[in-house]
Specification:
This protein is α/β, with parallel strands linked by helices and 377 residues long. It contains 17 helices and 12 strands. Helix 2 (48-57) runs parallel beside helix 5 and helix 9 (176-187) runs antiparallel to helix 10. The structure holds iron/sulfur cluster.
């Protein structure tokens, strides 16, 4: 059928959906493809974006999308697509994962906005798919209460509580990579390995260049008077999910996005959305952006945890120290002192976070206290 494009001045008289697709791809590469673009046919008024998405889902076009097609350039193109089209693509990934695993799937649900959107996307196609939530005991009360409003959610618990993880392995500070570097430095007797952790160099066992895993400015932490480790996530989150897989055989949908970090971006390029090999998981929203999440929530009038309206941008574990060295202004712990004083007191005094954060030169005094002291000077 011949479609004539309107609402898109660069593409006049394109005579097939295929040529429209080619034209849009080219335009996106040249960055002249605007968001919220509506392309309709002037004669039959069909929505060509939707038509295009439907075609992508057909066998031939899906192949175009899935095979060795995960480059940074393609990621940028997909990130620039309008939300309608992203939804279609995500639904296509969701179906592919479901079919490939005979329906033995679940949604990894944290109660945060990304996995809330993911759950809605999955259940709009397969309403019976369970959500799985790991109750680490470290979630904001607002998140736990929000999770309780959903049906068919399986609650998992880690075998070890957070205070025991801190005691046995150590505190999760700065980042996974740095905490691991410090922990390995302390636990090896090899002077060569210690040197590699601190300053990098050629690793004699692999004969390959190894970059330092502890940045210069954090070298002082190898002598810190408390344990440091990256093990926490493994014990508190990964192991319960692994056990769930062993017991149920179900594989996850995960609501992560390539734009979240360089690592995720790299993972998209290496493994795409549906990663069948190794750590098998589906990430059907990899090419979404933060704005898409909010747009989806707004458009569908989806409920979300009220923790976001209290000023939190991240909703993971309340007491996690990963990344808090980058926070400007009132940091997460100072905010916690204001919004969740009981939890603040518990983590600072009972779990020992005050001494750890002080050692890292991160201010945890409530902002009000600082203002009072300053005014009194
Ligand atoms: S996010 Fe932080 S506190 Fe939560 S499990 Fe991982 S390391 Fe532990």
């Amino acid at each position: 059928m011949r479609h004539i494009v309107s609402g898109y001045p660069e593409a006049q008289n394109l005579n097939s959906v295929w040529s429209v697709k080619m034209h849009i791809s080219l335009s996106m590469r040249k960055k002249i493809y605007p968001n919220n673009l509506v392309i309709t046919c002037r004669t039959c008024e069909v929505d060509l974006i939707t038509l295009l998405a439907t075609l992508f889902e057909s066998k031939n076009m899906t192949a175009d999308y899935t095979t060795a097609d995960y480059t940074l350039a393609k990621l940028k193109m997909r990130q620039a697509l309008p939300l309608d089209l992203k939804i279609k693509f995500s639904q296509s990934r969701i179906r592919e994962w479901y079919n490939a695993n005979g329906g033995e799937v679940y949604v990894s649900f944290s109660g945060g906005k990304d996995s809330t959107v993911l759950l809605d996307l999955v259940r709009s196609i397969y309403p019976h798919v369970p959500a799985v939530f790991v109750d680490t005991g470290l979630e904001y009360p607002e998140i736990r209460n929000f999770v309780k409003t959903f049906e068919n959610v399986i609650w998992l618990k880690p075998k070890m509580p957070f205070n025991k993880v801190l005691e046995k392995y150590g505190y999760p500070v700065l980042s996974k990579k740095i905490a691991m570097g410090i922990s390995r430095y302390r636990n090896t007797k090899s002077e060569v390995q210690k040197e590699l952790r601190l300053n990098g160099g050629i690793n004699p066992s692999s004969n390959k260049k190894q970059h330092r895993s502890i940045p210069l400015k954090y070298h002082y932490l190898v002598d810190a008077p408390f344990k440091i480790s990256e093990q926490c996530c493994d014990v508190m989150k990964k192991r319960p999910f692994k056990q769930y897989f062993k017991d149920s055989g179900k594989l996850p949908y995960i609501g992560v996005m390539a734009g979240d970090s360089k690592n995720r971006q790299q993972s998209y390029v290496q493994r795409g959305c549906n990663a069948f090999e190794g750590n098998a998981q589906s990430r059907p929203m990899m090419f979404w952006q933060e704005d898409d999440i909010w747009e989806y929530i707004k458009t569908k009038d989806l409920p979300y945890s009220k923790i976001y309206d209290m000023g939190e941008k991240r909703t993971g574990c309340m007491f996690c120290m990963f990344g808090c060295q980058f926070e400007k202004g009132e940091n997460r712990f100072q905010r916690m002192a204001r919004t969740h004083p009981a939890q603040y007191k518990y983590c600072m005094d009972k779990l020992g976070l005050r001494k750890v954060l002080k050692h890292l030169k991160i201010n945890v005094d409530p902002v009000e206290l600082q203002t009072t002291l300053f005014s009194g000077c």
